[in-house]
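Chapter review: from sequence to fold.
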Amino acid sequence: MAKNIMIVGVGGQGTLLASKILGKAAMDSGMDVKVSEVHGMSQRGGSVVTYVRVGDEVYSPVIGKGDADVILSFEVLEAARWLPNLKIGGTIVTSTQQINPMPVITGAAEYPPHLIDDIRALGVDIRAFDAMKIAEEAGSVRASNVALIGLAADVLGFELPVLRDAVAACVPQKALEINLKAFDLAVKLAAE
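The token string follows.
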């Protein structure tokens, strides 16, 4: 069975590390995995998307419109931007963080209010959490990407110990303790 996961956010939020963790978890689970390059403005502040496809045999890393089982979103507006790629019955797990895009910064537009409620009103399974708060509780807001993975653990398709081991294998040693704590706190919160 294949699983299509999109990781969406803004440059500098740790989307690349998140895709590396999921790729490692897939390989350690004996699955074929394809991870795309980052599409978009990967420098800090630009919109980014990474595709992670896992299954018995995966031929392409690209996920088309209506094909994503899970959208892991690091920022609310990015969840809305990539909503057309979610398949019917799919799940969005998003951080409640809001980062103003350039049109909002310059005053040419306003950040859309109530995006999470608007998406939910469409009948979409969207789970919103303050991943930055969880990461801060663990010791560093920089662990919010790993916290988001923990929040989505039940829908990503990996056994929890395999996913946690992938975090341990991919996170730099100096930040490992904080990231594992963020992961564990997030898994516990999502299960409540």
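Two observations follow directly from the output. Strands lie at 3-10, 32-35, 39-40, 47-55, 68-73, 86-95, 125-129. The mean pLDDT is 92.
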